[in-house]
Write a structure and sequence with these properties.
Layout: E1 2-12, E2 15-26, E3 30-33, H1 41-48, E4 56-62, E5 74-77, H2 89-97, H3 103-110, H4 128-141, E6 146-150, H5 158-171, E7 176-180, H6 184-190, E8 193-195
Parallel strand pairs: 3-7, 3-8, 5-6, 6-7
Antiparallel strand pairs: 1-2, 1-4
């Protein structure tokens, strides 16, 4: 599968958030989008997922087989965890896995990132880092062709980040992974291709 973005543009009022963004991404690779805060990374992700509409430009998904373009399945980790706070980590993950995975299988996957004792607790009682790992696991266990992760390692210490990255690489093999990060070290740990944005928003704008 291949994603081609050509001259993508997006403005909010008089503020140009994305200006002439172009890139080509392929399945089986990991891409890290690195740009200053307010440069439009989150807006780009939202446009790719169909949550925002671009003002101009082209987005093309090529299946790489007869039949031409197609609509990929997305999974995502947003800057906010977006978990159901009253549910346990297991219940949060099973909301997206359906019958593909049993509760026992989901517990086994979560135990790779979280202490076993935390799996039966409401998410509201977990630390910020535990919530983040729950959100990451949920995204990785959902069915997807494309995984978008918006600063996924926020709140994770170095040791935890390394273990999470190892798990991510295993679960995204053969898929397309695009994430935003401010850490050059993450690019190295992921073995990722480093990307930038050509369009810049004003400093401090949060999009």
């Amino acid at each position: 599968m291949k994603l081609t973005v050509r001259d993508l543009r997006k403005s909010f009022g008089n503020l140009d958030v994305l200006t002439g963004v172009s890139m080509e991404l392929e399945s089986g690779r990991i891409y890290c989008l690195m740009a200053p805060s307010g440069s439009g990374k989150t807006t780009l992700f939202r446009i790719l997922m169909g949550l925002e509409t671009a003002d101009g430009g082209e987005i093309r998904w090529d299946a790489g087989r007869p039949g031409g373009t197609f609509t990929p399945r997305f999974s995502a980790v947003f800057q906010e965890d977006r978990l159901c706070e009253a549910f346990t980590p297991v219940e949060n993950v099973m909301m997206v896995t359906g019958k593909r995975l049993s509760e026992k299988q989901v517990c086994a996957e979560l135990c790779r990132l979280l202490p076993a004792e935390s799996l039966s607790r409401p998410v509201s009682t977990l630390s910020g880092g535990m919530k983040r790992r729950t959100a990451i696991c949920r995204a990785l266990l959902a069915p997807f062709d494309v995984l978008l992760m918006d600063e996924p390692f926020t709140g994770l210490d170095e040791e935890t980040r390394i273990s999470v990255i190892s798990y991510m690489k295993e679960k995204t093999a053969g898929k397309l992974l695009l994430l935003s990060t401010h850490q050059e070290e993450d690019v190295q740990l992921l073995g990722a291709v480093r990307l930038g944005l050509t369009g810049q928003a004003q400093a401090g704008a949060d999009f």
